[in-house]
Amino acid sequence: MTAQSFTHTSIHTSHRPLNGQQDAMRVRQLLIDSYTRMGREFNWETRRWEGWYWTITDAERDTPMRGSQAHIWETAEGQILGAAVPEEPGDLSILIHPDYRALEEDILTWAEDHLAVTHETGQRQLRTWAFDWDTDRQDRLRRHGFVANSSDCFQHRRRLASDPVDDVPLPEGYSLRSITATNEDVEGWVTCTNATFGQTYLPEMHRNFQVDSPSHNYDLHIVAVAPDGTFAAFAGLTVDDTNRTATFEPVGTHPDHRRKGLARAAMYEGIRRLQALGRADVVYVANWGTAEAGQFYAAIGMAHYATLTAWDKIF
């Protein structure tokens, strides 16, 4: 596909499909730099991007143009200033350099043409997202005909990494440990996370993520092991060393082992290990906007500080 060019007030850009791992690493750097520039979550955190790009099948891993469903906007010198990432069909995430937000106009126009889904009625729909504090994007979305859907949202939460954590006693027969690179642990992790979230991930997808994603750390991915040796709960931490932040993703408990404090214990163990490393000042997590999930994270000191809300356009 030929790159298309646009000229903004002070910079000339072109856009094209994302093309392989080198581009993926450049998008990752955009996310790191935008946090440094803003001093807060603004785009995706690196863990979310790494999960999107590197959680793939073996066949996808061998595809040179993998990730090409995402589009990037870049300068003539090759600096990526923005990206349109379809997390699901009809679901757009905008990644943008904070100093070049006017590019969001181009990204939205392109996404309306290329990422919207068509319903049986013939109507087309596109969803995207905006933080509650981001009036710039909210105004832009209104001008494009989007409407906020407050029932679909993520609560973003954080705590200081140095805050003390409680000792959580485990039920008899359960234990905590970090995961390893063995096939048994890959299969155990996927079995537990699939049952928790209703997913159908293949073990090879998680193995490829572990091996290829730049930030993955086995020691910061904690599992609660049940008496029968299966994984009962999990909590993964990913560190952005540049910005001294860490993100919990994923966190959950197998349906057969809930209400035992296992996910909380796994998160606390991850935080203790993070404290020992001294690599992060702030710990983040995001939960789907349900009261139960919010109460769980609030109880372990993760304070709600921002809400990311879905905006929909039907046309």
UniProtKB/TrEMBL annotation:
<feature type="domain" description="N-acetyltransferase">
    <location>
        <begin position="174"/>
        <end position="315"/>
    </location>
</feature>
<dbReference type="InterPro" id="IPR000182">
    <property type="entry name" value="GNAT_dom"/>
</dbReference>
<dbReference type="GO" id="GO:0016747">
    <property type="term" value="F:acyltransferase activity, transferring groups other than amino-acyl groups"/>
</dbReference>
<protein>
    <submittedName>
        <fullName>GNAT family N-acetyltransferase</fullName>
    </submittedName>
</protein>
<keyword id="KW-0808">Transferase</keyword>
<dbReference type="Pfam" id="PF00583">
    <property type="entry name" value="Acetyltransf_1"/>
</dbReference>
<dbReference type="InterPro" id="IPR016181">
    <property type="entry name" value="Acyl_CoA_acyltransferase"/>
</dbReference>
